[in-house]
Amino acid sequence: MAFAEKNLLVLEPVEIAGRHLKRYHVTADPAGIEPEVEKAAYALLPELLPEPDGTPAAAFAVLHRGGDTGAYLNVYSWVWDNVLHFGGAAAGQPALDCPDTDPAHFVRVAPGARNWIGCVWELAPFGHERDAWVRHMLAPDRPDLAGYLADALASGTTGRT
Questions:
Q1: Which of 42, 35, 55 is nearest to 14 (CA)?
Q2: What is the pTM of this model?
């Protein structure tokens, strides 16, 4: 199997369960992720968020539609001022204990069952998000949450190769 980058689509931030969320979609399909998959993923998303700890309530999510029946939701929430908390869910992937092959039937990936934080396509936003958090939240005299939320990786592909 030859490696190929996938499409990366950046959506407008939303607020879910009191947390400001930047959204990235990853898929090989140029038409994007099916609406029913997106709706199901975001319905489960509040269960993947940590309790507030005083850190500005911000996160970024990567919704990835695999090339088979699988779909994956990775949610990275900023906690403890400079640490990422991970919450994951999957759909349509029996290898991850999903009950069926329906890509819109998301279940939480049990903590400790798989200590994975993302595949090569899902990790594309990581460097940008780290730098944006430092640039807007940690380096200035006063954190700029609006600046952080507006500072997203550009849509395109998951890699620059």
A1: 42
A2: 0.95
Name the residue with tokens 């996160």. Answer: 59
48: CB partners within 8 A, 6+ apart? 73, 75, 87, 88, 89, 108
Q: Output the CA torsion sign for 148, 152, 158, 159.
A: negative
How far are the Cα atoms of 11, 68, 134 from residue 47, in angstroms, in the given order?
21, 25, 27
Strand-strand pairing, 106-108 and 83-91: antiparallel
Number of H helices, E strands in the chain: 3, 7
Phi, psi of 149 (to 5 degrees): -65, -30
Tell me the pLDDT tens digit for each residue of 12-31. Answer: 999 999 999 999 999 999 99
| Residues pairing with 10 in the sheet | 24
- Number of Cβ atoms within 10 Å of the Cβ of 76: 24
Distance CA(15)–CA(110), nearest Å, equals: 25
| Predicted confidence (pLDDT) per residue in 36-71, tens digit | 999 999 999 999 999 999 999 999 999 999 989 999
- Judge whether 111 and 88 are in contact, CB under 8 Å: no
